[in-house]
């Protein structure tokens, strides 16, 4: 049977998608740098000028604005370097438990899914880039809250050391992934069908995999069925 001459080779399609992702990351990151820099700068100026007149809660809120803007600045710089083919990774010792709880708290506030629960007691400290890995966690936890089932969302995060790697499992009790789609979930610009779902870029798992590659690790779907899904992240210990 002859091939369809109008259909581009899959390698070309994959290459085009990769270039589109790189252009998207580079453009978005570049355009965000200036407003983020100004947010951080003005927050710092306000802290210097008003520190003596603000109460504890107001100071904490202002410091949080500055810290989040600075974190976003570091992340956009990392994204630009990733898009340019030379990712700049800044590894630090991070408390995985605190990071997971922080990301989870932000997401449940944003999505207003109050009945959701996170099981993650006793996670270790790991050495990795906090901005990039924090975004990986955000993508996975967002998916767990978005593709939930009829019961209250529950996510469990566990980590174990095997040889020279950390293996971090993120399991949910969501709707699961149809076997027909399991090879596609990491494809760029593809979204798992869900009636009434908010439309997005379809780059969450794709960028998560790219970030983990830059960190020397990877991600895969360990299992998925009607009781939920489990993704496994591998990260080098050093």
UniProtKB/TrEMBL annotation:
Keywords on record: Kinase, Phosphoprotein, Transferase
Top-rank taxon: Bacteria
Reactions this protein catalyses: ATP + protein L-histidine = ADP + protein N-phospho-L-histidine
Biological processes per GO annotation: osmosensory signaling via phosphorelay pathway
Presence of the UniProt keyword tRNA-binding in the record: no
Domain named Histidine kinase: residues: 27-238
GO molecular function, one term: phosphorelay sensor kinase activity
Signal peptide: none
EC number from the UniProt entry: 2.7.13.3
Protein name (database record): histidine kinase
Species this chain originates from: Rhizobium leguminosarum
């Amino acid at each position: 049977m002859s091939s369809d001459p109008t259909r581009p080779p899959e390698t070309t399609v994959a290459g085009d998608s990769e270039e589109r992702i790189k252009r998207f990351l580079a453009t978005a990151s570049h355009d965000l740098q200036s407003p983020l820099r100004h947010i951080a700068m003005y927050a710092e100026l306000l802290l210097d000028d008003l520190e003596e007149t603000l109460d504890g809660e107001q100071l904490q809120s202002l410091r949080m604005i500055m810290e989040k803007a600075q974190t976003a600045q570091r992340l956009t710089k990392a994204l630009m370097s990733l898009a340019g083919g030379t990712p700049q990774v800044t590894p630090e010792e991070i408390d995985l438990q605190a990071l997971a709880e922080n990301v989870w708290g932000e997401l449940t506030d944003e999505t207003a899914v109050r009945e959701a629960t996170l099981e993650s007691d006793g996670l270790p400290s790991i050495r990795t880039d906090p901005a990039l890995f924090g975004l990986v966690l955000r993508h996975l936890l967002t998916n767990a809250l978005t593709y939930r089932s009829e019961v209250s969302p529950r996510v469990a995060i566990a980590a174990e050391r095997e040889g020279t790697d950390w293996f971090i499992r993120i399991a949910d009790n969501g709707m699961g992934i149809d076997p027909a789609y399991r090879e596609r979930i990491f494809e760029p610009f593809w979204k798992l069908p869900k009636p009434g779902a908010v439309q997005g870029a379809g780059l969450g798992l794709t960028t998560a995999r790219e970030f983990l590659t830059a960190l020397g690790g990877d991600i895969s779907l360990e299992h998925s069925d009607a009781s939920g899904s489990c993704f496994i992240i591998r990260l080098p210990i050093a």
